[in-house]
Amino acid sequence: MTATGQQTLAKGHARCPIFSQIAGFCKKLLNRTPQARAEQETLPLQPVVLTRDQHGISRQQISDNALKVLYRLNKSGFEAYLVGGGVRDLLLGRQPKDFDIATSATPDQVKQLFSNCRLVGRRFRLAHILFGRDVIEVATFRGHHHQVNNNKNASDQSSEGMLLRDNVYGTIEEDAERRDFSVNALYYNIADFSVVGFSNGLKDLENRSLELIGDPETRYREDPVRMIRAVRFSAKLGLTISPRTAAPIRDLAPLLGDIPPARLFEETLKLLLAGYGLETYHQLQRYDLFAPLFPEAADVMGQDDNDYHRFLELALINTDERIAKDMRVTPAFLYAALLWGPVETRTQQFMHEGGLNYYDAFLLAMDEVLGRQVKSVAIPRRFSSVVRDIWMLQDRLTKRSGKRPHRLLEHPKFRAGYDFLLLRAELDPKLKELADWWTEFQVANPVDRQQLSRAAQARHNQFGGEDPAKARKRPRRRPRKKKEA
Q1: At what angle do helices 432-443 and 414-425 cross, to 10 degrees?
Q2: Where does this protein have compositionally biased stretches of type Basic residues (predicted)?
Q3: Which of 89, 100, 204, 467 is catalytic?
Q4: Cut 0.85: pTM above it
Q5: Pairwise CA distance, residues 17 & 12, whole Å
Q6: Mean pLDDT computed over every residue of the chain
Q7: Is the pLDDT reported for residue 78 higher than 90?
């Protein structure tokens, strides 16, 4: 029921007691039905406005480029708001990574105002205002897509309810309803410097609660990525996912299979490479979202006779610590850790079932695991090639005699391969000697390096192989045929 309808109903109550009784009965009856309850959940709440002196956001905290865009839109007669995560983070005392803007101007109108504007997106038409490497994203207020179902160019849905196209424009109130979580339905008004919160967003932020706007199942079906966004915001901001928001996730998790693998790659970077990867991983497992993203790894981790689950946790801890220290991290290292279990498992299967030697089985396993993984999360070749380098170095690091270790130090991915070996050695005591040797070899002077190489050669001769921790089976050579006289 609209606000106008409620006012009319209230006036009717005062004038006619009988009408009031009938209305009360109908209201109770409607509230008993599941449909009415669902509709009631999706009704917009009245906005809460914090004036300039009621919040702590200062324009000094907002990037100069974002302010330029806001001011120009406002002076051109359009509504312009800083929106979503930028406002949320500022209210939490965090420095936003990005500043996004919502406006009443259409993408074409935005493009007319900014010569440095580029329109992008098909599913969601957006304007990117370019300031060198800094990109300010500007979105037009979203409307209700069901209002223009006859216009397939503006809005379209799949048979599963997923939005395929959504270029329907509306008001700020409609835009707030279309946002995913209430803590993202927050707007900073450049006109009077107030903060406007919809759908109880300010209250939820205060209570550290993550609430999905609207009916959870419907919203997840519209865009299944919202399920992993819920996990990401919960881990990143320390928010508790509300029971109603969490309830459908496990049943709807398979819908992630309908999302383009390239999009899921970008989402996994936000999940696992933002400094809170370990907590995110635990929540992905808790809500059955890990398997749709990484089916090969999930299958191996489901077996009881390995430590791959703990190995991935160590990799995530290592990554989180590096990010906290503002050190460089690469997606390739984490993907190498994620898929190491499947690669080792398939290598052993190829050796035992196919009679292959270790090297050939290892190459085949790498190709198979990466080939399967890209069907769910598409790892770009610039990263998958580094993943292969890290894996291949694990075998090469066992070869320590002669000039091999000297040449290996010059390998462009040596450091990543060495760090990966250290990680493996934390769980496998057999690798500790090898990891310690490489740690010492890197810092040794030329004379000491020769001594280390000779000691490694003696150890090689003692055990009859480069690595006593891993006795590799090599194919037996056939005896040479004798020449006939």
Answers
A1: 140
A2: 471-485
A3: 100
A4: no
A5: 8
A6: 85
A7: yes
